[in-house]
Amino acid sequence: MEFHVYHDFMVYTKGVAYILMAVTLGAALGWWIFLTGKEPKDDNHH
Questions:
Q1: Helical (H) or strand (E) element with 7
Q2: Contact 12, 3 (CB under 8 A)
Q3: Scanning 2, 11, 25, 44, which has its CA 20 to 30 A from the CA of 35?
Q4: For residues 3 and 25, what is the distance between their CA atoms, to the nearest angstrom?
Q5: CA–CA gap between residue 37 and residue 40 (Å, rounded)
Q6: In the prediction, which pLDDT does 40 show?
Q7: 8: helix, coil or strand?
Q8: Burial letters for 36-45: b for 16+ Cβ neighbours within 10 Å, e otherwise?
Q9: What does the alpha-carbon distance between residue 11 and residue 9 come to, in Å, rounded to a whole number?
């Protein structure tokens, strides 16, 4: 990949950073849902 000006490089790296942040957010959300998954319902109310 070839960048002719610094601005092109900056825009590319900023785009990659935003993509990585979105992937990390999605992974963290999935991990949270996995950790707090459905627990079996207990219908015994005392």
A1: helix 6-35
A2: yes
A3: 44
A4: 29
A5: 10
A6: 67
A7: helix
A8: eeeeeeeeee
A9: 6
24 backbone φψ class: left, alpha, beta (φ>0; ψ -120 to 50): alpha
The per-residue pLDDT for range 1-46, each reduced to its tens digit, is 787 899 999 999 999 999 999 999 999 999 999 999 877 677 666 6
For the record, the structure tokens of 38 come out as 């459905």
Q: Around 20, how many Cα atoms within 13 Å sit in the side-chain half-sphere?
A: 6
Give the pLDDT of residue 2.
83
Cβ neighbours for 9, distance < 8 A, ≥ 6 positions apart:
3
Q: Are 3 and 9 in contact (CB under 8 A)?
A: yes
